[in-house]
Amino acid sequence: MFYDHKQIDQKWQKYWEENQTYKTLNDTTKPKFYVLDMFPYPSGAGLHVGHPLGYIASDIYARYKRHQGFNVLHPIGYDSFGLPAEQYAIQTGQHPAITTEQNINRYEQQMRRIGFSFDWSREVRTSDPSYYKWTQWIFIELFHSWYNKSTDKAEPISSLINYFEEFGTENLNAEQTEELNFTAEEWKNASEDDKQDILLNYRLAFRAETTVNWCPELGTVLANDEVKDGKSERGGFPVFQKKMMQWSMRITAYSERLLQGLNDIDWPQPLKDSQQYWIGKSQGAAVKFETENGEEIEVFTTRPDTIFGATFMVLAPENPLVVKLTTAEQKAEIENYIEETSKKTERDRMTDVKNVSGAFTGSYAVNPFTNKKIPVYISDYVLMGYGTGAVMAVPAHDERDHRFAKKFGLEIVNVIKNEVDIQEEAYDTKDSVCVNSESLNGLNYDEAKSKIISEIEKRGIGHGTTNYRQRDAIFSRQRYWGEPVPVYYKNEMPYTLPVSALPLELPEVEKYLPTEDGDPPLGNAKNFAWDEINQKVVSVDLIDNKTVFPLELSTMPGWAGSSWYFLRYMDPNNDEVFTDKKLSDYWGQVDLYIGGSEHATGHLLYSRFWNMFLKDRGYISQNEPFKKLINQGMILGMSAFVFRIAGTNTYVSKNLAHEHQTQKIHVDVSLLKGDELDTEAFKNWRPEFNDADFILEDGKYITEREVEKMSKSKYNVVNPDDICEEYGADCLRLYEMFLGPLEQSKPWNTQGLSGVYGFLKKFYNLYFDGDAVSVSDDEPTKEEYKILHTLIKKVFYDLENFSFNTSVSSFMIAVNELQKLRCNKRKILEPLAIIISPYAPHICEELWSVLGQSESIEFAPFPKLDEKYLAEDEIDYPVSFNGKMRFKLSLPADLEVKQIEEAILKDERTVKQLEGNSPKKVIIVPKKIINIVI
Asked: Which H or E run includes 15?
């Protein structure tokens, strides 16, 4: 029978859509399973064959769980706010919403064609006002919350106000920007503005001056992962460090919980390691150093045991103390250095460990234990956001401090016993004892650390403490295409809009660039002010700062909407709450989350933070959002290159290129057949190649091939639409799984599809004899049952262990064996279709229908394994004499040891080997081996 994949794909995709086969009901009587893919951003380029890899894996697992009787939630949506759509709007004037809608339609068309079993009725888009209404609501909840360290959770800001009214800050144990001290009386007498200013010190969403990555060309602040080598990832524009008033999220309050929570989730260890490193917990001491002019420099150090070796201090260039400590003689040098540092991102400064630079402030501090004057420098290797923005430098035992000391000719004092020449290299260990350290001499690391912290506390110059590298997350962006922040300003103090006013919708603007005054693009809006009396948005012309006030002009960052979308899928159309708690209690954690590892310290960290916050406030019950996470690898492209002879438009074939001076140029892989370039198609590809000449080998132009990341810029992208057209969606799905383990990266090779397509044709024709359906109700043979149950066992194991590639191999083996037996038994072919259906749903729906079934195969129970069909009737025993195998003997599998021994000793081959002698010993391992010692 002809396998018409086009007709079959179209038929069943239409059926699924019309019958809403994958629509999930909130049936709380059934066991649930929540399968989710990381939120896709709908780019203009659409999908290439690398994108569906994770979606196919999650879809297979979702279908498998449906077969097992679970109520499966497998939704899809779009992270539809983003810089690319805004950049396109700046270039063309087209509203980002139009571009985004077009891109989403393209994505959806492509995904439906691959046959994903998404519940499309639950689709959400972060740029839809009905969605970002609740993103704004979560922001308001964060604004009106503080972190109580005594209860170790977020609480309403009203409880903090009550505390202030009764106790002031006495014994307050709160996460805060800076430590404040005031009495209850002072709080009560404070003005409204002063109270609001104080509360910003504690709110979980707060405004503060922050050093940010500022990109003037894009007119916005960028996250660290949006900056590469000092330039914006989007457009390659210069990025500078700049201090700005920004909204931030107090994620630092959750640092310890975020660390401890990693013990309760099944995530890849490298991803956990990334988050642990990012959070960066370290234990040590805070110590204050006095300076000559009376200022104090507080440092955090993990090695207080080495304080006797501190011979200089280094401040971050942004540290406010720099201005106070810089002498007139050093002012120009310091200002020049600060200017140069502003051109580097924090990430650049952290990763550039080899280059040492700095400038002397002209001031000195005093080491509190040696009483020596030590110079104070600034350097870009010290970051304001980590610790206190200052370090005590111990060059003998820190590599970077050592390089700094050598460069600037500073003293190096050894305080750890070692055999190294510390004038030439640093020696860092915790496995030795202290020297040159007065009362610490002879003590090991733990003893010395404990003793010096005790002494520091006794002298009142510091205390033992725990520090975290993680900093509060900047939450505002100076761009248009994002969620408006629901805040207005009264006397320059932020106030949130009432919930009844949500969503605060993005206003229309004439242009998407910052204003002439340097305000964000929302500053171009004519209708974007808050009327406090009438509780509505009005014209900016009405701002009088009495009843009508300016609204916040920044928008939220790209990660805002994706930090909670997994919760909205549970109840996507509810206009009263972000999700009904009964439903969030039912669906609970995402049971399986699949996506890329690049989101380790962005989306995955922020989602955990928001989830913990919402639990603290009683809106959900689960501690962690994602129970199990798998990072899929990449499908790599097979790029092609041509060789242009330098200074000409002549192209020389690969194996002749060494004879010329050439440039290697990417060429579109669609112009190739195998490795051979279609030279006429190449000439028509782009105008600059119209008059190209070629130097061929054996009449052909052979390209060079290289495995690279699949990318539009490398012309190695393969469109899944083309694969579905030529081979069908099931072939694409099976082939992507067949390429190798899900977590690994692997190269794409379109030629490999023909083997998988051949398997599908063979599988399809098991159900036919010629053009007629041929299915027998006869009882299968034991051999046929064995093939089926071997497959059930293997696929069950593979799916439970996410080994999708080995299942595809097992399908091929089983179908080949059944074809050899000419098996057409219903009791074999029905379960076979169910087993393969998660991987190849279109063909299996068709065959299920051919078998006379009127309902979708999707909910048919997964076949049960019966081990009796796998039991062996006979065992082929290898028979050895003194350890050397001489022959094999087939014996019934159920024989006892004594029966096996009798049978082997009677065998004529044994008699011949023994030559009339009796064996010294007969060793029998049932169902394994026989060894006769003679």
From this structure: helix 5-19
